[in-house]
TrEMBL record:
EC number from the UniProt entry: 2.7.1.25
Lineage: Bacteria, Pseudomonadati, Pseudomonadota, Gammaproteobacteria, Cellvibrionales
Protein name: Adenylyl-sulfate kinase
Annotated source species: Simiduia aestuariiviva
Database matches in CDD domains: APSK
Catalytic site positions: 120
Functional description taken from the UniProt entry: Catalyzes the synthesis of activated sulfate.
Gene (name only): cysC
Amino acid sequence: MTDNKSPYQKRENSAAAEVVWHKQLVSPARRAEIKNQKAACIWITGLSGSGKSTIANLLEHKLNADGYHTMLLDGDNVRHGLCKDLKMSDDDRTENIRRVAEVAKLMTDAGLIVITAFISPFRDDRKIARELFESGRFVEVFVNTPLEVCKERDPKGLYKKAIAGEIKDFTGISSPYEKPDNPEITLDCASKPAKETTEILYKLLKCTHIAL
Ligand SMILES: Nc1ncnc2c1ncn2[C@@H]1O[C@H](COP(=O)(O)OS(=O)(=O)O)[C@@H](OP(=O)(O)O)[C@H]1O
Ligand SMILES: Nc1ncnc2c1ncn2[C@@H]1O[C@H](COP(=O)(O)OP(=O)(O)O)[C@@H](O)[C@H]1O
């Protein structure tokens, strides 16, 4: 019963004073232990079209093949359910990332290795997400693909629409993307193939963050 202190308790503006934290007999570490793994949140950030979903999928596929219990949260999918009330204003993006980080935290408390793929354009929002996790349990992955390359790829035709003014608040065009200052890893997804960058990320995770 060592791991009962919650990061929730450390945060400002958390629950009302009347809401008390209930200690639990089974710790997050124990939940991961019976799965024979270490829980972690692999937070993938980058521009639209940078390769977040591609890398996240390849990574989950590899970890799953190794027998890890994983979960993938992807921006496009989450915005169909949990966050379908949110749009793309700065405030809505902040709320989107807050919810996703809380869900990822719950899932890591359940012992899972969670991979998230969200643009998550604001440094402060990513910092708040990181602060939910114990040291070493949050791995920020910057998918570093230049805007010009993303525009050229334009897999969903969104840049074309954004440039034509048909989509407002579009990241990189009419809404900012703040690059991570100090991510655990930066992936060069412009000149290296997705399989290669995924392998680099996979090796880092296996050697450090999820190594038993
Ligand atoms: N205005 C605007 N700007 C950026 N992206 C847009 C926009 N409108 C819709 N989309 C689509 O929404 C996906 C991004 O959702 P996220 O939840 O990852 O965004 S954020 O983290 O809240 O900024 C994003 O997915 P990816 O291309 O996979 O990044 C787009 O498909
Ligand atoms: N090296 C690479 N890494 C990742 N994606 C790449 C790479 N080269 C080309 N692509 C293509 O770029 C597009 C990236 O789209 P996606 O993974 O959905 O990005 P995001 O989730 O960041 O919007 C895909 O069509 C993918 O096949």
